[in-house]
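My main concern about presentation is that the manuscript never shows what a single data entry looks like. For the editor and my fellow referees, an illustration may be useful. For illustration, here is how one protein appears when written out as sequence plus structure tokens:

***
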Amino acid sequence: MNGLLTGKRILVTGAARGLGRSFAAAIAAAGARVVMCDILADELADSAAGLREQGALVETQTIDLASPASITAAFDAIAAGGAIDGLVNNAALATGVGGKTMMEYDIDLWDRVMQVNVRGTWLVSQAAVPLLAQNPHAKIVNVASDTALWGAPRLMAYVASKGAIIAMTRSMARELGPQGICVNAIAPGLTRVEATEYVPAERHQLYEQGRALAGAQHPDDVNGTVLYLLSPLADFVTGQLLPVNGGFVFN
């Protein structure tokens, strides 16, 4: 994949750790300058420093997806560095949002998940469009989840938010196509990262035994699909959902 994204500037949200950090590393290794964004300022700085030590071209920007003012300020700073060729909407609230049935969910938690995962993704995309539209064949990759495809129980707010991301992707593809911007989504399965450490062992076992390609899923298993969707190889692909889950769910 070296050189696949040479000369491009690509923004990744939720890049301080987990899938986002892995995406940022893969994007940088493919030749792009990566703009790493996250609310976790200290972890973001550490992750960026680690990539720079490997020779990566990295910028950082703190951002809070729950705050429209924070998003505006972040993109003012990002715009000062020029246009962007791609956006990976990876940031989402996942830790601590599961375990309750639909009857047990409280309104505050539901609203918080929607505020970050759905509204935040929309606002980030909205802020990014003027920067993306300056480049031909710009790309947006939205990170959904295969939980929205099989209806994972005791996780309703998260599942609903990721279902919204899938629907938003299709609408965004229609609206942004005339500007030459491709918009696609991926739906990873349960991945072994920091954010899933709280997930009960039986849920991990369900996935790992239920995949057509049995076993655990790791961030590296998802990187190739993200690189493809950001690259010129996907210049005529838009509005699509690609499950990346080892065959736990087929689409």
